[in-house]
Amino acid sequence: METTPVADALARAPKALLHDHLDGGLRPATIVELAAEIGHGLPASDAAGLGEWFRGSADSGSLERYLETFVHTTAVMQRRDHLVRVARECALDLAADGVVYAEVRYAPEQHLEAGLDLDQVVLAVQEGFAEGVEEAAAQGNTIRVGTLLTAMRHAARSQEIAELAVRHRDEGVVGFDIAGAEAGYPPSRHLAAFEYLHRENMHVTIHAGEAFGLPSIWEAVQVCGTDRLGHGVRIMDDVGLDGEKVRLGRLAAWVRDKRIPLEMCPSSNVQTGAAASIAEHPITALKDLRFRITLNTDNRLMSATSMTREMELLVREAGWSLADLRWVTINALKSAFIPFDERLALIEGVVKPGYAVLGV
Ligand SMILES: O=c1[nH]cnc2c1ncn2[C@H]1C[C@H](O)[C@@H](CO)O1
Ligand SMILES: [Zn+2]
Asked: Does this model's pTM top 0.80?
């Protein structure tokens, strides 16, 4: 993309990110290096080729096939020092992209193959984030990173992961999530974990309404009591036209009325077939209907993207303005899993002044 005044403004705009997978954001060069160290075979031997392989393979039109690419990232995230490095680089890369607040998620149960236990995995990742945040600050980029612990929805460890999240809540873990193939694995499968988290006053988000439709969103909201929806793009199935007038079904109305945040990830959705194109992605219609939408990367490696790029795509292909981007940034901070006063401080002290400099 050529450098234009708008592209320059987007690069400088303060960003808030609620939905980014640690194992979906590795630097290709790091994967090449770590894979060589542990003797893991890769589908491409150089960083550029590997980056291209991830993006191309993830462009499959199917969430299941998209998820298959993660075997090559989780493979190199098994040793303590490797987890520290990947987390450190994640914080540095997000900060360099202008992200001032990020919630980064991963599934600890996928990092036990070299003998670490769940707590050791969490501590290694927290150490890496702390290092990255400190280095970024030294480079002049201030970022705050919160961690979400994910349980894989096809597996049966959600209660354990929920307890792990609660155990590490004072060390930077701010919430819990479920991810993985959605069809056939409804959120209610993990109801006991969600009930436990509610009793512990712990925040919850659920991947729902990405590869499966309204029943998945309904369960996440009404049965599991989620605070936010990961993607939630299929809520559009409950939005119709009554002549010229937009009509919300009961679930869509509930989601909008309750201001339930939607963690939307345009490029990822185009790759998995959840949306036809950036121009037609429901994020724009939902913005116009004033749902509590947020803009996210999902997997920077698989989508070869960044927050700046997602913003550029919406501006170029869906007619978004800087004011729209400021709005979703504030929405994200209103929806963040850190305390209210800290969210407010970021909105008033960082985001609003940052956009004011850009004339918004
Ligand atoms: O967009 C997604 N939908 C469902 N699951 C996902 C998505 N992106 C990543 N994951 C899975 C694969 C990762 O290994 C796991 C934990 O980050 O979460
Ligand atoms: Zn995701």
From this structure: yes
